[in-house]
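[job 0412] stage=complex_fold ligand=iron/sulfur cluster status=START
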Amino acid sequence: MNTTTIRCDICPRACRLKDGERGFCLVRVRHGSEVVLKPYAYNSGIALDPIEKKPLHHFLPGTSVLSLGTIGCNLACRFCQNWNISKKESHPEDRMQHTSAEEIVRMALEQGASSIAYTYNDPVTWFEYVLEIAELAREAGLASVAVSAGYATEKTRKLLFSAMDAANIDLKAFTDNFYRTMTSGRIQPVLDTIQYIANLPNTHLEITNLMIPGLNDSPEETRALSEWVFNNAGRDTPLHFSGFTPHYKLMHTPPTPTETLLRARDIARSVGLRYVYIGNRHSANGSNTHCPSCGALLIERDGYSIRRNRISEGKCPQCGCSISGTFSLAIGH
Ligand code: SF4
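[job 0412] stage=complex_fold status=DONE, emitting structure tokens
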């Protein structure tokens, strides 16, 4: 056996692996001179969701998305909401289901989905399987959506996100200290991913910030995060402030009060962001889309359901203002 190590270049963790060794994410294994995805094409879950659940509010609103995930993760968030799949030891391979890319696309078509989402666990670590599905999906007229923490190297970032029609990137906080202590990652690669996607011509971007009481929810941090999004992703990038519910290693941290999310929305709007949403908490108007020009109610939502969508050809029917996003399916670029 070769005992020298090689570095994995999929994510910034840059694990040094001996032959046969698994990386931190638990799904990349060194085989000779390569670091491969193993297991390949085994799913921890497949379900039909509303696209609003990803969350994506400006990408094919009201449509269904076939969502799938595998196992493992390249971060170690103490508040992980999917820890039962991000930690392989609690979800052995032999209980997983092998599903080929062809089968995934066929299921999406049969179930009437408009898109396929790579979600539940971070698609960065299983990007080869994602790319195989996305290529077939595109040929079948289906869109592809990545839900990711964006913790990727430049190489993986380009390969993965340029193949997506939409992405929601989880910007977990706006301090490197939070990333180090709560996720065992760093913030800069995530910011680099957001900037990269924001500049892609054919990939719609939305951002989610999960607000955890006492850890990342100060008004100063929310303002700094919002200003960064405004300056680097643009005022039209939808931003979702999402409520935390106790999970995994943060079972004793209280849930996020709705007032914190409302305050965050006010701050983000005050710096100039035009589409700001509240998630995981019921709030009148918290998930509705309004015209940034005349204020007309454009999409009325009730949880993940759409009650009414008045956007016509991507525009406000009242004043004609163009609304940022993708409102009809034209896959094939
Ligand atoms: S993808 Fe996995 S093995 Fe590769 S550097 Fe990241 S955590 Fe390590």
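Residues 40-309 form a domain with the TIM Barrel fold (CATH 3.20.20.70).
[job 0412] exit 0
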